[in-house]
Design a protein that fits this description.
15 strands, globular, 522 residues, 16 helices, alpha/beta, Rossmann fold
Length: 522
Amino acid sequence: MYSGLVELNKCLLDNLRHDILSQSKTFADQVDVSQNLLAGLTRYYNEFVTPFLVAGIYFSHAESDSLFDGFPADRLEAYSDLLEFNLDILSRYLSGSLKAVGDYNCRELKYFVAAWYNTVFNLKGEKLDGFFSRQSEMVRNVTQKFPQAIADIEPEYGFHFERGDNIKFAETDRFLLYQIMPTEPKIKIRENGKPLIIIPPFVLGSNILAFLPGEKRSYAHSFANQGVPTYIRIMKDIQTTTAFQVMTIEDDARDTRFFCEKVREKHGKMVTLNGYCQGGYTAVCNILSNKLDGLTDALITCVSPMDGTRSTGLGNFLKTLPPRFNDLIYGTKTLASGNKVADGDLMGWVYKLKSIENEAPMVSFFRDLMMMATINGKMPQISKTAAALNYWLQKERSDLPLSITQMSFASYNIPITDDGTLPVKMFGRKLNFKGIAGKKIPWLICYGENDDLVEKETALAPLDYVEAEVTPFPKGHVAIATSWSHPESACALHKRFGENNYRGPVRFHLDLDNAPGKKRRR
């Protein structure tokens, strides 16, 4: 009997000890969740608020310089419209944030109730200590592991020209031209093949076109790995390159001509010019300027904004901005050299503002938090794709020369005329889309079916004036460079795909080289 009482007391003490430890761990996890949640939200808010504060500085400087311009009544009306504009953004900001919190709570509440029920009635399944431990792990993944994964992907993301894997081929005061070499060891470049020069976007940078070469996800390497003589134009550092700071769009055309001359001289064939995003609009303008005549005989544009006034996102956002404040001066900064440039970080922030209900800090935080939720009881691994995309979003922003920014600004504020004339002049002459047809240059236009940055209508605007081949790709703005650049993907760039047998940009270029003189499909 005595030994039985001893065993009973021991059992009770073990249970009490277990309960104390369990409650202590639960309490520790609750504290950990609270601390990491606060730290995470603070970081996300800082990333959003910093450009906001910078924008406020630019705004105050611009307004102080033009304080007495115009009539007081007009200024008052403009400020009233600006207040209404800001209130609309604030309303969408709050509704998006509340929805994000609500969606997360609704999803996790059922798990909390189940854990509470299991704990109270000692049933099988997740208990409260397990629930809070899982929450703690999720928040820790977002605040610690995810940022670390983003930092760790840097060696695998982008071109890394400093390694010497790709060849510096030519140089101007503003740009470098690199030849992209295959990542597939058995592939050799066809020196007599038709060459291609890629023009990357200015704001988003060139590295998105070498997303993850080691994972076979690289737009530029998709050409090189088919043996295509592939070149890419790289901007010099605008912070230290005075010539780039003051570059004009005419300088852009002259430099592109110089590169095309060098490439044609080496390979003996005319160049295919391939612009991605903003680089596509630049490529078209350079061709229409007549400076590339005799050097370029084919054109590819991918997710390129050809008429920003047709944009239902950024275009409409700019239309709702009071005209007085729809001016580049509110996004212009002065460098140490004294030259003025457009602030690339601020331009990236504007993209967030246009979709603030989906890009508010709390929305982004809870979206990442739910991405880290358990699947079948296991925490998901942070994929290289997710890490590389976030590295690009956080790190890849560049300031722009004002002339390039003004070109894009005009395309989003002034529509193309009925006869196809662009809102941009080069070398003192008008540019018209019909000039592409006059030069008999085959043109492939690629767009993203779910692109909310450069919508279908914006990318396909030239079709109202000229014929071009069109290839739609599933997903969004960078999917061509990320998802579909993989050679085994459903829409691989070197293949035909879809019910209409669409050609990817690599296939389009290869067909130009392999079947000269044949009538090309329009």
